[in-house]
From TrEMBL:
It is found in: Cytoplasm. Coiled coil: none annotated. It comes from Rotaria magnacalcarata. Belongs to the vinculin/alpha-catenin family. This is Catenin alpha-2. GO terms for cellular component: adherens junction; catenin complex; cytoplasm. It holds the Pfam family Vinculin. One of its GO terms (biological process) is cell-cell adhesion. Keywords: Cytoplasm. The lineage of its organism: Eukaryota, Metazoa, Spiralia, Gnathifera, Rotifera. Its main location: cytoplasm. GO terms for molecular function: actin filament binding; beta-catenin binding.
Amino acid sequence: LDSATSLITAAKNLMNAVVLTVKASYIASTKYRSKAGNKEPIVQWKMRLPEKKPLVFVDRQNETNSRTKKSTVKKRLEPIHLLNEFHN
């Protein structure tokens, strides 16, 4: 239990360090200008949303075996054949 707690604490500290480094890099890139006097920063950051990932992975292999699959090809039945089923 102690080793798991220490791993979680180390991971949180590492993530905080990464976040602070990214913030400092972003601030530095917006403040630092090139010698040519351009108003644009040398480094431009294009931020995007992270991909959404499920919190719990579901084993889909067992579910597909238990499902019944529908046929994609529909069989056309003639009315005469349907009526013959009732007469016999």
